[in-house]
Amino acid sequence: MSRLKDKVAIVTGGAQGIGEATVRAFIAEGASVVLTDLNEKKGVELVKELGQNAFFIKHDVSNTEDWERVISQTEAQFGYVNVLVNNAGIFGPVAKVVDLDKKDYLNAININQNSVFYGMKYTVPSMLNAGKGSIVNLSSMAGIAAVNGFPSVAYVSAKFAVRGMSKAVAVEYADNNIRVNSVHPGFIKTPMSAAAFTEDDVMKELASKYVPLKRWSEASEVASLNVFLASDESAYITGTELIIDGGVTAS
Asked: How far is residue 118 from each of residues 84, 137, 217, measured CA to CA in Å?
């Protein structure tokens, strides 16, 4: 298949979860992919498996110097960037506002929100040189509505910000044919969710209670949406949010 043929993509947090699934889907559709992650072992192993169209860079998404290096190395390896998937993030901390430590709050904002700003800031110039581009910013259903029972003001505020930033940059660069959209997953089976919810019975209970479709999503289902947004099939879609949550925010 070749829906992403000749496209150069960067996927942050690309060594596991939604990021890994997205990398695999992009490679299958013909893209050249730079996957970045702090987990060097998994990143290197994945590149060895996927072959010459995949390239790994160890990357702290909250570090601007790292972003500059990622763009430089991507252009040297594959050329100008056509697609950016800002996927890296953390779930915690889970605490009500009065119990939330300032340091933990700012850390969550830095990783989940500021990293998306940095990604767009340092990737857009490469996309301008490429002539067009698509940015996919991973938010969450928590960027649409706070879910009762999951008190995490740090996570929710960051994911709402990602949604807003996506709209702002979409408007700023529409004349340059650079599209920006946010993706809002719900309950997804990933290493991050597995760490937060360690018992299968708990996960089933959450799905039964909150999800109209009564199940958790697979990472590959989110990856399929990312492929669509990265491809020219979505050429008229920009500045919007695409929700993939099994109906949670509709009910």
From this structure: 12, 12, 28
Question: Of 136, 127, 139, whose CA–CA distance to 176 is shortest?
Answer: 127
8-244 CATH choice from 3.40.50.300, 3.30.2170.10, 1.10.630.10, 3.40.50.720: 3.40.50.720
Query: Residue 94: its pLDDT value, please?
Result: 83
Strand partners, 35: 11, 56
Please name which of 40, 118, 38, 30 lies closest in space to residue 78, comparing C-alpha atoms: 30
pLDDT in tens, 217-233: 899 999 999 999 999 99
- Helix locations, 102-231, DSSP H: 102-109, 115-130, 153-172, 191-196, 200-210, 219-230
Mark whether 155 is an active-site residue. Answer: yes
Report if pTM > 0.90.
yes
Whether the pLDDT of residue 240 is over 90: the answer is: yes
Q: Kindly name the residue from 105, 155, 173, 210 that is annotated as catalytic.
A: 155
